[in-house]
Each structure stands twice: as C-alpha cells, then as structure tokens.
DNA sequence: TATTGTTATACTCTATAACTATA
DNA sequence: TATAGTTATAGAGTATAACAATA
C-alpha cells in the first residue's frame, strides 16, 4: 500500500478554488459574449478601452488586461478587422500605437452593458453585495501580496 | 464627446479580480512545475489521482479537475506515455477506464510536494492563514452559488 | 437506444524568440 | 543601443461534434 504524500488535499488547493470560482462566474458572461462572437479576452480588451477616454498603448493594455503583447497584437488585429477599434500612430514616436474604440465598438460595448450588469446584479443578489465587495478586496490583496515578494526556498521572486 | 457607458468600471470586474489572483498564485507553482515539464493541467490530473486511493474514471476526473473530457483524454495519453499513470479497463464494464498513478507518477508527486507546500506556506505566512482560509471558503461558496442557479433575464441556467 | 470515452476539427491563447522600425 | 510592437513558432487547452465500443 502506497504511503500518503505529505501534501494538502487537492480540494484545499487555492488555485483550484480560484479556478472554479472564475469558471462558474465566467460561464454566464461567456454565454452573453458568444452571441456577439467575442472571446473572453477580446471582451477584456474592449472593456478596458471603453473604461477610459484616452487611448491605450499596447504595453499598457497588455498590463491592464493581463494578456501578453503577442496576444494583444492578434486580438487587436482581429478587432480592427471587425471595425471595433482603430489603431493610429503617435506623432512624436512612430513606434507607439494608440488604440481606441470606434463608434461601432463603443456601440457594441454599450449594447452588451445591460446584460453584463444584469449578470453582476444577479450574482450580488444571490451571494450578497457586501460579501462580494469583501471578497473582491481580499482577492486584490492576495494578488498584490502574492504577486510581489513571496519568497520560497530556492526561489526568489 | 462619447457618453459614458452605464457599466461598472473594468477594475471592479469580478472575473478580472479572480484572474489576477489566480495568475499571481499560479506563477509560483508554474515555476516549480516547469522543472518537471508539467503543465498546470497535467499537474491537476496528477494531484487528483494522488489525492485518493481508488482509481478515477475519465468523467469523474474531468469533473474533479475542471477539465473537459477531450482534454483529459489527451493529457492522460501524454502522462501514460511518460509512464506516470496507467489505464486499465473495468472488468464489468469495458467502456470505462480506470486511471491510476504508477509508482513513478506517485514518486514524482511526492518529489514535488515539499516545494509545493513551501509555496503554500509562504502564501499563508504573507497573507495570513486565517484570512486565506476565509477566502477559500468564500470562493467555494461563490462557485456554488453562481454555478447553480443564477437567473438572468433571458437566460435560465 | 443511451453511455463512456476517444478522435477530429477549428479556433484561440500562452510563452518565447526573432525581427522591424523607431528612438 | 534600447524600446515598442509585430510576426513566427511550438505547444496546449477549449469547445463542439462525430464516432467507436459497450451496455
């Protein structure tokens, strides 16, 4: 008989808990996005662009959406083809790109907004708005704490 | 000037908060797994198999690891090729497969366990063990609440 | 006829490196 | 020489459908 491995149970895994929570949540949004032929990542880009007036540059957008630059490049090309965003170059630095929603892109986000908010509201209603706010705060803190300077034997990150 | 879209700010997005928390956490584990040429999903399968004595069947394992059956099939084929798991058929129902770690697979999990636990302990130390336990409980509850019966206008899920 | 699991297909993302253009 | 962004490449997962074998 194999000896038990000294390790916390799989069910107690933090990454799994985060994954399940995310999948459960996203499933509702994905249903919505699929109607407009949008992937989750494309939606992240559109959402980010819609969330502020100024244009984004690629690097900035990558950081903001937690996507890699090559992924952004492809997504941006796709959304550009579909007329949802425009790329313009910056006058004083021709390497940089300015990314912005087109009127059509903005209209799309605006069209999806009510259903997206409805999903959110439903989650808040079922789970509790206060609890959800607390949870979000803890998640942010965890990301910051763990992202910055966790040190493990043999690893310095 | 475009009118603002009635939608919560991108930064307040629950899926983004979950994603960032997960990515920050997983980055540490991925560093560990990469040394053994394991993807995150392969590790989930190994972890699940290591977590109990009885063999898993494919459907069961898919549910447990939050992977789709086709993904499991490929992962299992890969781990089988590497001699980390074995597939045997069930006597009374030849459609079913029984999946188990080999001695070598068990040894691999056992070898990675200490570092994995060290990462966990470090997270607990920095974030707080109690806070982490609370967070995990809330995540489980969110997954359950949202996964089961969230109803949104036009969608019944 | 329903179920378990595999295979096929198309698409997308991840991750890294190489490359182009510009600064 | 360094930086911003794109392109190339390899690998893998997602999702759906079709299929084979078995019940």
Order of strands, widest sheet of chain A: 1-2
Query: Which superfamily, in CATH terms, is the homologous superfamily of the domain at 25-112 in chain A?
Result: Winged helix-like DNA-binding domain superfamily/Winged helix DNA-binding domain
Proportion of helical residues of chain A: 55-70%
Number of strands of chain A: 4
Largest contact between chains: A-B, 74 and 74 residues
SSE order of chain A, as H and E?
HHHHEEHHEE
Unreliable stretches covering 5 or more consecutive residues of chain A: 153-157
Could you report the average pLDDT of chain A, rounded to the nearest whole number?
89
N→C terminal distance of chain A: 38 Å
What is the CATH domain class of the domain at 25-112 in chain A? Mainly Alpha
Proportion of residues in β-strands of chain A: 5-15%
CATH architecture designation of the domain at 25-112 in chain A:
Orthogonal Bundle
Q: What fold name stands as the CATH topology of the domain at 25-112 in chain A?
A: Arc Repressor Mutant, subunit A
Structural class of chain A: alpha+beta
Question: What radius of gyration of chain A results from the CA coordinates?
Answer: 20 Å
Task: Characterize this entry briefly.
The structure is a homodimer of 157-residue chains. The first copy, chain A, is of the alpha+beta class. The first copy, chain A, has helices at 14-34, 40-50, 58-65, 69-81, 103-127, 129-149, and strands at residues 85-90, 93-101, 151-152, 155-156.
